[in-house]
Amino acid sequence: MLDKIKQLREITGISMAECKKAVEESKGDIDKALDFLHRQGKIKAQKKAERITKTGIIEGYIHPNKKIGVLLELDCETDFVAKNKEFEGLAHELCLQIAAMSPQYIRPEEVPEDFLNSEKEIYKEQLKNSGKPENLIGGIVEGKIKKYCEEISLLTQPFIKDNQKTVQDIINDYILKIGENIAVKRFSIFQI
Prior knowledge:
The protein is about 55% helix and about 15% strand. It has helices at about 1-10, 15-25, 30-50, 80, 85-100, 115-130, 135-150, 165-180; strands at about 55-60, 70-75, 160, 160-165, 185-190.
């Protein structure tokens, strides 16, 4: 059992106590232990999300072709964490994500209502002559709007290095590792 705990710690970087709990909960199955830690990470991240992030770092990235650059403000609770290499690494990964996927907003709730209304009209017009029953078009349009908002919002985008997780899932994993709330406050993309 100790070998499995060590293996899980090597994979995740999470504390031995958390790894032990996950291995015990999963009865020694590493895949189930990883799933358990992922679920626990979401729960803990939700609890920590209410805590105030009063410090952080500004991270920058310029693509080697010098045609795109990103500035990101990533906040946490303490200076100690802000100076942590893992936290800095997360900020860099988020800059790469932003450069690659060009999100327009941090979260779907930030997409302006008037913008969504104009998109809805476009989708309705596209579906008008599709032969779909009129009573289903509203649901289809809402589904398309939800998907579109997820695509243009950083936290709900699939993470470029593991498309099985969203960017928020990756942040939650770091919250579990580091033990503090982490929040993307703002970002800017510069593109030629």
